[in-house]
Amino acid sequence: MEIEMKNISKSFGAIKALNDVSFSVKGGEICALIGENGAGKSTLMNILGGVLPADKGKILIDGQEVNFQTPADSLNAGIAFIYQELNLINDLPIYENMFIGRELKTKNGTLDLKKMKTKTKEVFEKMGIELDPETMVRNLDTSYKQIVEISRAIMMEASVIIMDEPTTSLTDQEIKRVFTMMETLKSHNVGIVFISHKLGEVIEFCERYTVLRNGERVAEGMVKDVTVDDLARFMVGHDLLSQSIGRNFDQGKEVLRVENISRKNEFNNISFSVKAGEILGVTGLLGDGRTELFEAIFGRRNISEGKIYLNEKQVEVENTTDALKKGIGYLPRNRKENGIIKDMNIFENASIVTWPKFADYGVIDEKKQAKGFEEQVKKLKIKMGAKTDSINSLSGGNQQKIVLAKWLIANPDLLILDNPTQGVDVGAKEDIYDIILKLSKEKIAIVILSSEAKEIIRICDRALIMYHGVIQGEVSGKTMNEHDIMRLATGGQLN
Ligand SMILES: Nc1ncnc2c1ncn2[C@@H]1O[C@H](COP(=O)(O)OP(=O)(O)OP(=O)(O)O)[C@@H](O)[C@H]1O
Ligand SMILES: [Mg+2]
């Protein structure tokens, strides 16, 4: 099967999301669709998936023009769409989710649960997925939800599968599994549209690429002819920096110190400190315990032993509200699930933690709050319509910026950022790094949890490397390098 999208244009009010864009994919090929946040990738695929109508242009399947009015039309034509924002029902088990909208029935019209279970099991076995079909979806990690979505597309025997940032919230190991699946699909002559900000993945797994910038197609070609740097340059229109910023920062007073804190099976005997104005990185591989450690510092879980000091005073952080009161901010990972409140508009999402700050005698100074918000929108170059628009009207990366903006407005003493550039394009990454640097100049102590060694090296003054719940080592300054970090992260030592 070959799909061609020809001269597609689409506007949302005054925003021109797509302008005369053409794109194609055929069976057995993995095609990358890349571009900065807000470039129009999801919009283009929403049109192919029958979610949105195009203003102009046409879609051809094997040379025949088609007209998709609904997602079902697109699906019936053999196109499965795995959305950027996952689309599963938490209160149903996996196997029922696999058949939503196409439930199997017994002869007398009741749901054929047994058959749905068996079919799900078969697909899982075929793809080498170790998941129990009876597990409730709410108990799955984001990564496994992703895998369930992919399996669903496989089960529908789609000819083309669109994956909108499938690996953004996955660990390296899980990413490998997804790619193995993609290779298998490819060998079954399935075509894949792969949207990702991880350019390394694009180079490794895709054959062809198309680059969008500001709603226009600015480059396309064969992946074998380009490098990661080329792709990044096409996306943003200029060269990018990758070396360490390597700054000399003004060390301020100690903001956080932990002494010998532990929690059973999660982290053990952890001691370190962070100073005002410092950017401390914490990294490691899957199961290193860094998220658990910082969730404990933020009051999301208890510690069983040890002491925490904030601004040189010993504290007990009872819960997250208490943490906020004590001046600790926390940007959780998996923005899709933890960072955003879908029923609130953009401004409400950005303001949610700042009510106390702008409240004078219990009355919120809305003007002040709105001013703080407008400033951040400018600083972070957030691409949006009106601030009262739904948060869902923003592209994925811009949603991430809103979540970050909310902490910038709150101005805490200590800010913990778990995967701050998850799902963010290479250009916007630099914008976010700029903001983090500015914050540190305002004497906020910053902790960045990240699985990307490159990110740690680029932005952090110093980094702790964790391995199975302990701090395995520390690196700092201009000599930080990926090799040392990897060595510590896998349990080795530096000489
Ligand atoms: N439903 C909508 N209403 C209004 N504007 C929209 C809507 N959907 C998308 N847009 C706008 O269209 C533009 C393209 O958005 P799109 O979601 O396609 O970007 P993207 O390339 O997928 O970005 P990301 O990498 O951040 O996911 C953006 O400016 C976005 O704000
Ligand atoms: Mg998108």
Unreliable residue stretches: none
For the biggest sheet, the summary is: 6 strands, mixed
The structure class reads alpha/beta
Q: What gyration radius follows from the Cα positions, in whole Å? A: 24 Å
What is the rounded distance between the termini? 56 Å
Task: Calculate the mean pLDDT score and round it.
Answer: 87
In the CATH classification, which architecture of the largest domain applies? 3-Layer(aba) Sandwich
Number of strands: 22
Strand order of the largest sheet: 6-7-8-3-9-10
CATH fold annotation of the largest domain? Rossmann fold
What is the overall shape?
A: globular
Strand content: 25-35%
The number of domains: 2
The CATH class designation of the largest domain is Alpha Beta
> Bound compounds, please?
adenosine-5'-triphosphate, magnesium ion
CATH superfamily of the largest domain: P-loop containing nucleotide triphosphate hydrolases
Separate helix tally: 18
Summary tags:
495 residues; Rossmann fold; 18 helices; six-stranded mixed beta sheet; 22 strands; alpha/beta; 34% helix
Describe, in short, the structure shown.
This protein has helices spanning 41-48, 71-76, 94-97, 113-127, 142-155, 172-187, 199-205, 228-236, 290-297, 320-325, 335-339, 346-351, 355-358, 366-379, 396-410, 426-441, 453-459, 482-489, and strands spanning 2-12, 15-26, 30-35, 56-61, 64-66, 79-82, 160-164, 191-195, 208-213, 216-222, 254-263, 267-275, 279-284, 305-310, 313-315, 328-331, 359-360, 363-364, 414-418, 445-449, 462-467, 470-476.
